[in-house]
Design a protein that fits this description.
This protein is mostly helical. It folds into two domains: 42 residues, no CATH class; 64 residues, Orthogonal Bundle (c-terminal domain of poly(a) binding protein), CATH 1.10.1900. It contains five helices and no strands. The radius of gyration is 29 Å and the shape is elongated. The termini are far apart.
């Protein structure tokens, strides 16, 4: 039986790694082993980054909505609660876009959310007992 040589498969794999590593600093773009480690590390960070991006955008949307709510005299939590009670099903991405680009439309949403909220009743505080 003839022996199996890996020539093309090995070369193809190495070329693929070195192509991904092009632009890396010094040996990480030239030598296969260093390039392989750098590429794997980079892919790991890219994977994590794709998840972090989703969190960061949601956080940004919440900040934008909260700022617009403050301008309309309400808090973010009361606004979101009121929208849920009013049956308005807009996600935070759309709400943030409306807050930035359509102030009048956002004001109407705030009014709708406030109308759905029950009126606030001031809780009577019990009088402090005097200790003799």
């Amino acid at each position: 039986m003839p022996r199996v040589k890996r020539g093309t498969k090995r070369n193809d794999r190495r070329k693929k790694i070195l192509k991904r590593a092009s632009g890396y600093f010094l040996t990480k773009s030239k030598l296969y082993q260093a390039a392989q480690e750098a590429v794997e590390r980079g892919l790991k960070f890219a994977y994590i980054g794709r998840r972090l991006k989703k969190r960061q955008y949601r956080s940004l949307w919440i900040v934008r909505i909260a700022a617009a709510c403050k301008m309309n005299g309400t808090s973010y939590s009361q606004f979101i609660s009121g929208l849920k009670k009013a049956g308005v099903e807009l996600d935070r991405k759309i709400l943030a876009d409306i807050a930035v680009h359509d102030a009048a439309g956002f004001t109407k949403l705030v009014e709708q959310a406030n109308a759905a909220q029950p009126p606030k009743a001031k809780a009577a505080r019990p009088a402090k007992a005097k200790v003799a």
